């Protein structure tokens, strides 16, 4: 079974990807005045890490759901500053993940409800998933460009 599905993320050229990332960075800088920040005007930003292990033989089907439904949904969700989807590697062919940066705990709760510490699964993907975890952290640093000293 091939795993080419996860390589279809985007047809953007490297230049278009760079310009898109630069535009996102400019938008973030316009909203927030600090270069590196652990505390924002409205509270702490939240890093949410969601991991899934698919059932054996369901990798391709889950991959299709992941790319066609889950990633677009999360990228379009109000309150999410950044989405970093992770596709399987050859040494972990059944594992998918999301790292999401939320602007606040309130935004996260507005999306998933008060029970934000439980890993919510769409009913259409439940039969594909063997195991899932969710972890939350307060974001302590968000570096938005070369001026941070990481160039």
Task: Give a structural overview.
With 151 residues, the protein is an alpha+beta fold. It has a single domain, classed as Alpha-Beta Plaits. It has helices spanning 14-31, 59-75, 105-112, 123-126; strands spanning 46-54, 80-86, 95-102, 129-138. The chain is globular.
Draw up the topology in text.
Blueprint: H1 14-31, E1 46-54, H2 59-75, E2 80-86, E3 95-102, H3 105-112, H4 123-126, E4 129-138
Antiparallel strand pairs: 1-3, 1-4, 2-3
Question: What distinguishing features does this structure have?
Answer:
31% helix; disordered N terminus; Alpha-Beta Plaits; globular; four-stranded antiparallel beta sheet; alpha+beta; disordered C terminus; single chain; 151 residues
Tell me the major beta sheet: 4 strands, antiparallel
Output mean pLDDT.
76
CATH structural class = Alpha Beta
| N-end to C-end Cα span | 40 Å
Q: Specify the overall morphology.
A: globular
Strand percentage lies at 15-25%
SSE arrangement, N to C: HEHEEHHE
- Biggest sheet, strands in spatial order? 2-3-1-4
Please bin the fraction of helical residues: 25-40%
Poorly predicted sequence stretches spanning 5 or more consecutive residues: 1-18, 28-42, 146-151
Please tell me how large the radius of gyration is. Answer: 17 Å
Structural class: alpha+beta
Q: How many extended strands? A: 4
Number of domains: 1
CATH topology: Alpha-Beta Plaits
């Amino acid at each position: 079974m091939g795993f080419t599905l996860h390589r279809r993320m985007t047809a953007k050229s490297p230049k278009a990807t760079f310009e898109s990332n630069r535009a996102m960075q400019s938008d973030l800088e316009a909203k927030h005045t600090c270069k590196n920040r652990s505390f924002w005007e409205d509270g702490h930003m939240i890093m949410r890490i969601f991991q899934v292990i698919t059932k054996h033989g369901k990798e391709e089907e889950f991959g299709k759901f992941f790319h066609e439904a889950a990633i677009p949904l999360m990228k379009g969700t109000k309150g999410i500053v950044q989405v970093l989807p992770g596709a399987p590697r050859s040494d972990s062919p059944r594992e998918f993940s999301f790292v999401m940066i939320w602007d606040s705990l309130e935004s996260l709760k507005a999306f998933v409800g008060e029970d934000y510490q439980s890993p919510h699964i769409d009913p259409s993907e439940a039969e594909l998933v063997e195991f899932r975890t969710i972890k939350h952290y307060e974001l302590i640093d968000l570096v938005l460009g070369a001026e941070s000293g990481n160039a």
